[in-house]
What we know:
- InterPro entries: Gfo/Idh/MocA-like_OxRdtase_N, Gfo/Idh/MocA_oxidrdct_glycsds, GFO_IDH_MocA-like_dom, NAD(P)-bd_dom_sf.
- By secondary structure, the protein is α/β, with parallel strands linked by helices.
- Helices cover about 35% and strands about 30% of the residues.
- It is built from eleven helices and 17 strands.
- Helix 4 (about 75-85) packs parallel to helix 5 (about 100-115), helix 5 (about 100-115) packs antiparallel against helix 10 (about 320-335) and helix 6 (about 125-135) crosses helix 8.
Amino acid sequence: MIRLAIIGAGSMAGEHAKHFSRIEGVEVVAVCDMELAKARDFAGRFGIADAYDDLEAMLAREDIQAVSNVTPDGVHKRTSLAAIAAGKHILCEKPLATNADDAHAMAQAAEAASVINMVNFSYRDAPAIQHTRALITAGAIGQVRHVDASYRQSWLVSNAWGRWDQDSQWLWRLSEAHGSKGVLGDVGVHIVDFASFPVGDITRVNCELTCFEKAPDNRIGDYLLDANDTALMRVTFANGAKGTLQATRWATGHHNSLTLSVHGDKGAIRVDLDASLDEVQVCLDDNVHPARWSTVKAPSTPSIYQRFIESIRSGENDQPDFAAARRSKPFLMPVLSPVRRIEAWTLQCNQRRNAGRFSAHWTPSR
């Protein structure tokens, strides 16, 4: 029996609890949150025996082999390093850290402690994206030339997930002072992984971030709404392919939509997770000239929760591990790091134009 604890008691932590509870031979035995009442309520809802507000005390339990870290982004480093120091295998929510140095320190600590470590890029669970990677690796579309990827949410214009202007679980995601790196740090990391996992590493990026006005003076109570809510990226992949990646919270008509198109010199692949998690559209071989598309069923794939548990059982660390997540940071962090300072200024200057903007580009040093 693998006994696991959850750090954090928010809505995403509930998803972790549900997934792990479905895996045979796994028991979620404890949850820890800064608010003990919240932890106790969470434990009651998910049938978890023990609730804590003292992380050190929970991690001191020898019967707990692994943790799932579902805390806010800004405390991933502190809580993850504590778990690693206690010898616990760890699955951490994305993004791994809020800067490249912290991500590097976390990857080094996990390697030194020889604990299984993985990051929850959850959309890799979709059989469609796994099959897309397999087709590209096999050369089915030839040399990749162009990539389009989009992550569209609409919770700033839709109440389908609740009232963003009244609920702290949404407001903090709009405020740098409350630990948010905006849409780029929240779901932008997903779309970057969604594109680079099948196509290959990104080596150059030019990014424009925008923070639109959402309230008078972009403030609601204690929350200064200064985090970016739209991100547009032009990227170059290691194989020379060019791409456009975007993430936004303003995509009216899309609750949570991920799409990917990959075009090569011999064919193309399309993925739309709204349409299907386990089907891909392909234009290959004799269908290239008439531009005909067909549907291919993707084989099933285990979830990251299943792969994390299997890694613990086998001792072989599956992907994406902390080192893989760290490699995504070098090009995201130069874009993210100055956002608070520059956006605060541009918001003040551009309020009448209804947007604060920041753009940056990055190329790796040789």
